[in-house]
Write a structure and sequence with these properties.
The chain folds into two domains: 233 residues, FAD/NAD(P)-binding domain (3-Layer(bba) Sandwich); 189 residues, Cholesterol Oxidase, domain 2 (2-Layer Sandwich). 27% of the residues lie in helices and 22% in strands. The chain is an alpha/beta fold and 507 residues long. The protein binds flavin-adenine dinucleotide (FAD) and iron/sulfur cluster. Flavin-adenine dinucleotide binds next to helix 1, strand 3, strand 10, helix 7 and helix 12.
Length: 507
């Protein structure tokens, strides 16, 4: 059953066995697992419930409904940049690109050696990856869904001799409507809105939407529930209080909001790691304009990735977005945007993702605001400059007539000579137009309370009864798109928590 702001009493109190805060990749997966194991689950979700039939390509309508703060959330640092988070039932999975990659074995092996346990190693995790991939229907695209932009990327990679890999995506019958970031209009994308959440609800879970959790209930050092405020979806004003009392609290608000909530209670003191270790896979976009029709919007975003430079921590991907989002991203105003948008049919949006070599931190700001800080390193900056040049050369080899570059002080080049002539010393970190949709690591999992925030079951070391089940628990960045790894880790935690609860019931 789903509740919204019209349904709550002035002092609403509700009891559950487990309360799960957040319905994104981590929250929905663990909540569905627990509900199907016969446990009484209540979800609390700050955003609203928006079914597939409500999705459309209109930016002004979709962003405030589905994206936190309508997509204006920023990370502060040497180059202040935007980050994206979903705020709706389904969380970021409703607005993501649907690529489904497991954390590479080398990353999991590093976790094994860093944490001193096999628990998160490739063998131990395999069954949970398989379950997540099955649950969200991870598979290759139908040929009908592949657009001209993806063909250019794959042909360009072949011509350059680069390894191009087709993505598995969590979709069932995707026709390439290219509206993924504003909600899948066909319901093909298996976000948690249409996969885990319906299963959880069918198993009896309840979902309190439009309630922002603002604090934990702690009794005698144990977490016994959460306190929230109802949020008016139109004005965003907080009103009534909602309390959920539970035997276990699972926090799955994403890697920015989770530490923000926990920091209020001065948790994570043994290690001092809460809010730290913030990793983001920063990325930039390169927009190529071709002299002929490409019609990138008639096809799926992100059919494949160029993995040639993955060992150097660099991935390229096609990244077409709906027209409203494209217009908003162009470095122009008024009529100039309209003139550029008349070439929308000719555009190929491509992205560069760089694996972090540094970390940032989340702090609590005023007015219940989370303040993320992160600055790319000089080495990452140089990687971006190198990658822009490689990708730009590929587009010119494929016949592009112009490139729009991700530099605030240099917007475009028109041929290879101009591209090669860009003096890298003129492009500083502060000029990079970065963006990130991958937020991880701020309540890291570990086997040692002095070095991590949660233990190997996801329970906060210094707050029994409180668990974290989202991207916050990654010990490090994983270098690939994170949703399947988040789900797999959440399912693993779900199995452990279900066993504990069943055991306690018998006792
Ligand atoms: C535009 C975009 C494209 C992406 N593309 C891909 C991709 O192709 N492949 C991939 O693997 N990953 C992709 N990602 C990343 C992936 O979607 C996220 O890493 C993943 O969903 C994070 O899961 P999570 O459980 O940590 O948090 P989320 O999925 O963000 O869920 C957190 C939920 O908690 C809720 N919440 C937060 N604070 C509170 C509070 N105080 N009270 C109540 N509720 C709260 C939020 O509203 C939200 O619903 C993309 C993300 C974005 C934004
Ligand atoms: S490309 Fe279209 S049909 Fe496919 S998942 Fe995205 S929005 Fe859905």
């Amino acid at each position: 059953m789903i509740f919204d702001h019209r349904h709550y009493d002035p002092e609403h109190v509700i009891d559950a066995e487990v309360v799960v805060v957040g319905t994104g990749a981590g929250g929905a997966a663990i909540g569905a697992y627990l509900a199907e194991a016969g446990i009484d689950v209540v979800f609390v979700e700050e955003g609203g419930y928006h079914p597939t039939s409500s999705f459309n390509p209109y930016l002004a309508e979709s962003l405030p409904r589905l994206w936190r703060d309508a997509g204006t959330t920023v990370i502060l640092g040497k180059s202040t940049f935007l980050y994206a988070e979903g705020r709706c039932v389904g969380g970021s999975t409703v607005i993501n690109g649907a690529m489904t990659y497991r954390a590479p074995d080398e990353v999991l092996e590093t976790w094994v050696s860093d944490l001193g346990t096999d628990d998160l190693g490739p063998n131990a995790m395999a069954q949970w990856f398989e379950m997540a991939e099955r649950d969200i229907s991870a598979k290759q695209q139908l040929p009908i869904s592949i657009g001209g932009d993806n063909r250019i990327m794959s042909l360009g990679a072949a011509r350059a001799g680069w390894h191009h890999q087709k993505n598995d995506r969590n979709q069932d019958g995707c026709v390439g409507a290219n509206n993924c970031i504003l909600g899948c209009v066909t319901g093909a994308k298996q976000s948690t809105l249409v996969s885990y959440m319906p299963r959880a609800l069918a198993a009896g879970a309840r979902c309190l939407t439009e309630v922002r959790v603002v604090g934990l209930q702690i009794v005698d050092g144990r977490c016994t529930g959460v306190q929230g405020r109802v949020i008016d979806p139109r004005t965003r004003k907080p009103s009534q209080r909602v309390t959920v009392r539970a035997k276990a609290v699972v926090v799955a608000c994403g890697a920015v909001q989770t530490p923000h909530l926990l920091l209020k209670h001065r948790i994570g003191r043994p290690s001092g790691q809460l809010g730290r270790n913030f990793v983001t896979h920063p990325n930039v976009k390169v927009l190529a304009v071709y002299p002929h029709d490409v019609r990138g919007w008639q096809g799926v975003s992100q059919w494949g990735q160029v993995r040639e430079f993955h060992k150097d921590g660099i991935i390229f991907a096609e990244n077409m977005v709906p027209s409203g989002a494209m217009a908003a991203a162009l470095p122009a105003h008024g009529r100039a945007v309209w003139r550029k948008m008349q070439r929308y049919n000719n555009m190929v949006m491509s992205g560069i993702l760089v694996e972090d070599t540094t970390t940032g931190v989340i702090r609590r700001g005023p007015f219940d605001m989370a303040l993320p800080f992160y600055s790319i390193t000089q080495a990452d900056h140089e990687k971006f400059l190198h990658a822009v040049r490689l990708l730009g050369r590929m587009h010119f080899d494929m016949g592009a007539e112009q490139l729009l570059l991700p530099f605030a002080n240099l917007h475009s080049v028109h041929n290879v000579d101009e591209l090669e002539g860009v003096n890298p010393t003129n492009i500083k970190i502060r000029h990079m137009e970065l963006f990130t949709p991958h937020l991880m690591g701020t309540a890291r999992m570990g086997a040692d309370a002095r070095a991590s925030v949660v233990d190997l079951q996801g329970e906060v070391w210094d707050l029994p009864g409180c668990y974290v089940a989202d991207a916050s628990i990654f010990p490090t960045a994983i270098g690939v798109n994170p949703q399947v790894t988040i789900m797999a880790m959440a399912l693993r935690m779900g199995a452990q928590l279900a066993e504990r609860i069943h055991h306690a019931r018998q006792g």
